[in-house]
Amino acid sequence: MHPIFLPLSAATVAHYRRGGLDSNGQPPERRIVQPGDGVPCRHTLEYLPEGSAYLVVGHRPFEGLNPYTETGPLFLAADEAVPGAVPSSALPPFLTAPSYLVRGYSADERIVYGTGAVTPTERIIERCADLLARDDIAFVHIRSASNNCYHVRVERSAG
């Protein structure tokens, strides 16, 4: 079993690129990547190039609603021609900080207490594999260790 890193879905990104309302009921904000910004796109799983347009949206990376389904800001390439990443067992290129919060969730989208840990980036795949080996963990989130921003969802590989 290998963990698979999943970009934000093409359908979700298309909704925001068309100006669809975010999880806070607001239209996306449009900005331009400035020198030194380091804008991590949750659809390409890469940093966006300087000068490119991007969207800022309030997003809830969950299917349902409950007290654990957090909403937070994320960035997306604004250009419809920019394709999303392919789900992969490789660590996404935009995970370049020294560490991230890695946290497991149950099938009903609730935090499984005791699973959240600030994890060195080079140990993320191992940590995700350990969590996903547990029956009580349905998926994992990788989040900013300093701001708790959602970065990427991780699931079990199909094979």
Automatic annotation (TrEMBL):
Pfam families: DUF1203. It comes from the Bacteria. InterPro entries: DUF1203. This is DUF1203 domain-containing protein.
